[in-house]
Amino acid sequence: MASSTTLFPFLSIVALALLATAYAHHGFSVELIHHDHPRSPSYNPTLSPSDRIQAEIQRFNARAASLRAYFSHFHEYHDGYPSTYPPPSGSQSPCHPPNSPHGTTIQADLFASTDNNYYMSIRLGTPVKEIIAVPDTGSYLIWVGCEPCPKCYKKDPLFNPATSSSYTNLPCDSKPCSQLTPQRFCVNSTCTYYESYGQGIPYVIGDLAQETFTFKTTSGSFVRLPGLVFGCTHITNGTSQRNTAGIVGLGGHPLSLVSQLGSSIEHRFSYCLVPSSLTKVMTSHLNFGSDAVVSGAQTISMIDNGRQSFYAVTLDGITVGNNSLGPINSTMMIVDCGSTLTSLHGTVLERLVDALKKTISLPQVEDGQLPLCFNESTRSDYGYPDIILQLGTATITLKPYNAFLMINNHVRCLAMKPNDNFSILGNIAQQNFHIGFDLASWKISFAAADCTKN
Ligand SMILES: *[C@@H]1O[C@H](CO)[C@@H](O)[C@H](O)[C@H]1NC(C)=O
Ligand SMILES: *[C@@H]1O[C@H](CO)[C@@H](O)[C@H](O)[C@H]1NC(C)=O
Ligand SMILES: *[C@@H]1O[C@H](CO)[C@@H](O)[C@H](O)[C@H]1NC(C)=O
Ligand SMILES: *[C@@H]1O[C@H](CO)[C@@H](O)[C@H](O)[C@H]1NC(C)=O
Ligand SMILES: *[C@@H]1O[C@H](CO)[C@@H](O)[C@H](O)[C@H]1NC(C)=O
Ligand SMILES: *[C@@H]1O[C@H](CO)[C@@H](O)[C@H](O)[C@H]1NC(C)=O
């Protein structure tokens, strides 16, 4: 090996480059940076651990409110325009899809501009500009803040389309523009999108465009993807604090990153989130294509939701240690990497709390926000049981670190909150699972994994 490298250094480098390219088109992985990691744009080293937890709970509350808004407005979006639809100044009347005067297509994104849990780096344009964006399984559109944008989040300079040789605006009669419906306008014949995430949540308006994206993989190579459709946001009514520099939509819609990469990534992506105790020192991985094959997995069908921007399964039962909670009404459970906590129907959560109280003999303490907390200061034999979720035919075992959160010294709480209309499998519950999404078969795979190891 050593001699061939020495004898044919040029050939080896070419062969390696070709291999890297072939590999890149087959599968690649990028880093997912947790909110509290030093490379996160939200990193705040002055926060105490308990402040950090409180901030996580606030982020969860905002996310859950956004999810509820999405589902309560769904009917409205489905049937036509949201009543809060503000036409951008200078726009012509909204362009409806042909033969569909009221836009029968889906409403798109759950959430974007509130504070977030994970970030990823994208490199945009020619020459490249690095943007730290939020990957979101609850969004479909990829968008970034673009010059000029007076109210965009401006911790770093915005992407400037005028300086990129590979940037092009998409016209109103382009196919991607028709896929934006019903939230689009035609401004000077450029396709213009409007994204809102519910009452009281900021909206974004911008130009639909095409650009070259470059991803730095976890192996250090770069994957260049020309011609991806994305939004160049010029108008937002958000406050700079809560805005992000961009969103990478990972939902099921045709304009999401995953759908646009399509067969080149075998229509699949996955992630493996490292445990909370390590998020400050390690990054997690977001994988595409062959890297997203989950070995040893339990695979189940997701709920058929007409390719909206969320992924969901049914929650059919819960077991605490060896004891089933008994029959529960099945609910839709959204598998959401943007939610910190897990949510269950109020009556189910009450039964779970009762079962845990019987199992865990530690003294209880009250917490204003979380339903069950224990004082660990007097004991070391905590006795937290596994909690097993029955998701269709899959059984997912939540270890104590997936279900409980240390909120300050000696106090540990159940990391769950009630939500009656749907359940959420949050990202604490997802830690140390390799979770794969196959959009071609609309299936999800779960495998217990050590996410620090790949
Ligand atoms: C929750 O579901 C109930 C009954 O299905 C419905 O009346 C209520 O409006 C829903 N709430 C939200 C926030 O969607
Ligand atoms: C449309 O283009 C004209 C001419 O370039 C320009 O003056 C006008 O400001 C543009 N309108 C919008 C809304 O961008
Ligand atoms: C942005 O506009 C929406 C819709 O008009 C509104 O509900 C929301 O409060 C506004 N948000 C901010 C931060 O101004
Ligand atoms: C659960 O059942 C297994 C097998 O019957 C037993 O070994 C284990 O001790 C039980 N665990 C608890 C927490 O009761
Ligand atoms: C299931 O839902 C029905 C209707 O809301 C309710 O009457 C029933 O008590 C629920 N069953 C369980 C096991 O929670
Ligand atoms: C936990 O228990 C210890 C010992 O009884 C007590 O001193 C402490 O105040 C308790 N902590 C809380 C938060 O209740």
UniProtKB/TrEMBL annotation:
Residues 1-24 form the signal peptide. Residues 118-447 form the Peptidase A1 domain. Transmembrane segments: none annotated. This is Peptidase A1 domain-containing protein. One of its GO terms (cellular component) is extracellular region. It comes from Rhynchospora pubera. GO terms for molecular function: aspartic-type endopeptidase activity. PANTHER family: ASPARTIC PROTEINASE CDR1-LIKE (PTHR47967:SF128), OS07G0603500 PROTEIN-RELATED (PTHR47967). The lineage of its organism: Eukaryota, Viridiplantae, Streptophyta, Embryophyta, Tracheophyta.
